[in-house]
Specification:
The protein is of the alpha/beta class. The chain is built from 13 helices and 17 strands. The strands form two sheets. Strands 1, 10, 11, 12, 13, 14, 15, 16 and 17 form a nine-stranded mixed sheet that branches. An eight-stranded parallel barrel has the order 2-3-4-5-6-7-8-9, surrounded by five helices.
Length: 420
């Protein structure tokens, strides 16, 4: 059974102050996860987690993670701004973008971020900066040479991300002529991997690549970024990955490949889903029941609050609060109110008998949940809350108002009527 940090009574108290729907995050769960990650890679002196801001772009979250030693993995100008506002700057920012406009490179460089180049042609963009960065990373795509893929990332030869090996060698050589002093290699090849061998296999390939780079270009690689990709147990019968065992397996590959060659590198990760995903919950209330050809449960949340089930067909476990021990013997589609038939959190899901007014919790929404929200149908994005160890709650993002939806019409003749 999926566990929750609160019971029905506590959640009703929270909902009395903060109307549903809302996302709520378990602060202690996030802290524990980060500490376990750093413990798993403590053998590497330079290890650092760069939290993937896209997973949960909230300055309260970023500040919490910063206090635990994490940096930020950014992919856009607003994410850079969020990181800086949260007290994360300098080389604690990894700027991993693609098809990047010049002004975003300028901002990253001004903040002192590590720029991770997606393509060799982007070196020309760096030439246009006020000063060329001294630390640069290059993103590698091995294509079909790495066989471990999944449906989210797709086959690597079809992926728009990263450079081929010959391009990476050429990029490193060019960057050396530009005066770069510190070099890194980055690669993300799988998303939401539950296989414990993913990181060790990726690490082995990057360790070998670092040796090739040195042999062919004379460049000594200073850090290797394993990026993200580690998954979480969305299904209640799944076991979480063993991060300690994964860290040890990466260490074994390090000692086999790099130590005999006399090379020391820092290991970085860019986890998002793994850090916050299991510790976020979308809380919603049942406002309708409908029976036609199927039985439908209508929530006050919709795909605008969590689009993963609609977009990917992803499974998110659902708990009906107060009915955790009742038999799940009723078959429902759990839906939202968008004018789209894919606006469903669950299809043919067995649940206990649900009544209007019940509180439901949709699990594992702490990454790519609220952050993927949108305003289709004029739906307004929900609040975000932080749940603390002592049972208190802090609002870390208010719910949107109609005036937020209309804010970009402030120039128009309709503004007076819309922005009241």
């Amino acid at each position: 059974m999926k566990q929750l940090p609160f019971d029905r009574e506590k959640l009703e108290q929270i909902a009395a102050v903060y109307p549903t729907p809302f996302h709520i995050y378990d602060e202690e769960g996030i802290k524990k996860c980060v500490k376990e990650l750093y413990g798993a890679f403590s053998w590497n002196k330079g290890f650092r987690e760069y939290f993937a801001v896209k997973a949960l772009p909230n300055p309260f979250i970023l500040s919490l993670l910063s206090s635990l030693g994490c940096g930020c993995d950014c992919a856009s100008l607003p994410e850079l701004m969020l990181s800086d506002a949260s007290g994360v700057n300098g080389e604690r920012i990894m700027f991993s973008s693609n098809d990047t406009p010049l002004n975003e490179y300028e901002c990253a460089n001004a903040l002192g971020a590590v720029i991770n180049l997606d393509d060799i042609s982007h070196i020309e963009m760096l030439d246009r900066l006020e000063h060329f960065p001294k630390t640069v990373c290059c993103r590698y795509n091995p294509g079909n040479a790495f066989s471990m893929t999944n449906d989210i990332m797709g086959h690597l030869a079809d992926s728009k991300f990263g450079m081929t090996k010959p391009q990476l060698f050429d990029a490193m050589a060019i960057l050396k002529t530009r005066g770069v002093k510190r070099f890194g290699i980055h690669s993300m090849l799988v998303s939401c991997a539950m296989e414990s061998e993913y990181y060790p296999r990726l690490a082995k390939s990057l360790f070998e690549l670092a040796l090739e780079v040195k042999a062919k270009t004379g460049v000594t690689v200073s850090f290797l970024n394993l990026s993200g990709g580690l998954g979480i147990p969305y299904y209640p019968d799944q076991e979480p990955i063993n991060i300690k065992a994964i860290g040890n397996a990466v260490k074994e590959e390090y000692e086999k490949t790099l130590v005999p060659a006399g090379m020391e590198v820092d290991i970085y990760t860019e986890l998002g889903r793994y850090i916050t995903g299991p510790y976020g919950y979308l809380v919603s209330r049942v406002i309708h029941k409908k029976q036609i050809y199927k039985n439908y449960i209508g929530l006050d949340a919709c795909a605008s609050d969590l689009m993963r089930p609609a977009m990917y067909g992803s499974y998110h476990h659902i708990t009906v609060m107060g009915k955790e021990n009742m038999p799940c013997d009723r078959l429902y589609d759990v839906t939202g109110s968008l004018c789209e038939n894919n606006d469903k959190f669950a299809i043919d899901r067995l649940l206990p008998e649900v009544q209007t007014g019940d509180l439901v919790v949709i699990h594992d929404t702490g990454a790519h949940g609220h952050s993927m929200g949108y305003n289709y149908n004029g739906k307004l994005r929900s609040a975000e809350l932080m749940y603390h160890k002592d049972g208190t709650v802090t609002m870390i993002r208010r719910a949107e108002k109609p005036s937020d939806y209309f804010a970009t019409l402030d120039f128009s003749p309709y503004a007076d009527k819309l922005l009241k």
